[in-house]
């Protein structure tokens, strides 16, 4: 989908090919990896920004880096999971910004996209930040529902094969 969009790839290519950015391929997120998630968010937000005549290049760059935190969040059930989840929700945009600013030059829109994508924790200042936050949430819902279907269908397939064996 986005690989054939030359305008998108011209901006996204240097990020996609960056050694640190590639690390996101190994970090699970929602239904796939952080890498896949940020590419999807960036492409969908870019499509809206371009159509509206907004700063679509900053939209792409900020969206690609919005989850550039480079650690795996431990979601295993334990007594501190809710506290850890809250801390991750509040702190991962700051860690993503810290990592992004080490490896890339960021303009004010890109910084705001990264810092404020977890609205309502922080309120976005720019329309480009709003669209990335909205796409992030929309795609997260889709990705989690796909994961739920895999889990449910996987269970159903096991149940059907068990019944056929009897």
Describe this structure in words.
This protein is an all-alpha fold. The chain has a single domain, classed as Hypothetical protein af1432. Helix content is 69%, strand content 2%. A hairpin with a 2-residue loop joins strand 1 and strand 2. Helix 3 packs across helix 7 and helix 5 packs antiparallel against helix 6. The C terminus is likely disordered.
For this structure, the CATH topology is Hypothetical protein af1432
Instruction: Output mean pLDDT.
Output: 84
Q: Could you tell me the number of beta strands?
A: 2
CA-atom Rg in angstroms: 18 Å
Helix content: 55-70%
Strand order of the largest sheet: 1-2
Helices, by number, come to 7
3D shape? globular
What would you call the quaternary organization? single chain
The CATH architecture classification is Orthogonal Bundle
Q: Name the helix and strand elements from N-terminus to C-terminus, one letter apiece.
A: HHEEHHHHH
Protein structure class: mainly alpha
CATH class assignment: Mainly Alpha
User: What number of structural domains do the residues give?
Assistant: 1
Q: What key attributes describe this structure?
A:
mainly alpha, 7 helices, 166 residues, single chain, 2 strands
Short note summarizing the structure:
This protein has 166 residues and is mainly alpha-helical. The protein has helices at 6-16, 19-22, 34-52, 56-65, 81-103, 108-116, 127-165, and strands spanning 28-29, 32-33. The protein has a single domain (2-165), classed as Hypothetical protein af1432 (Orthogonal Bundle), CATH 1.10.3210.
């Amino acid at each position: 989908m986005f690989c054939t969009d030359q305008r998108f790839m011209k901006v996204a290519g240097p990020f996609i090919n960056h050694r640190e950015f590639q690390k996101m391929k190994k970090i699970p997120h929602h239904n796939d990896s952080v890498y896949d998630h940020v590419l999807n968010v960036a492409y969908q937000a870019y499509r809206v920004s371009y159509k509206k005549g907004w700063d679509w290049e900053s939209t792409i760059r900020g969206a690609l880096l919005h989850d550039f935190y480079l650690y795996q969040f431990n979601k295993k059930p334990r007594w501190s999971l809710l506290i850890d989840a809250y801390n991750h929700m509040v702190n991962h945009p700051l860690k993503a910004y810290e990592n992004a600013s080490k490896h890339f030059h960021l303009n004010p829109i890109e910084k705001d996209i990264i810092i404020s994508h977890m609205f309502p924790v922080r309120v976005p200042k720019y329309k480009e930040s709003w669209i990335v936050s909205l796409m992030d949430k929309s795609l997260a819902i889709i990705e989690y529902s796909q994961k739920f279907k895999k889990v449910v269908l996987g269970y159903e397939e096991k149940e059907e094969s068990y019944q056929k064996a009897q």
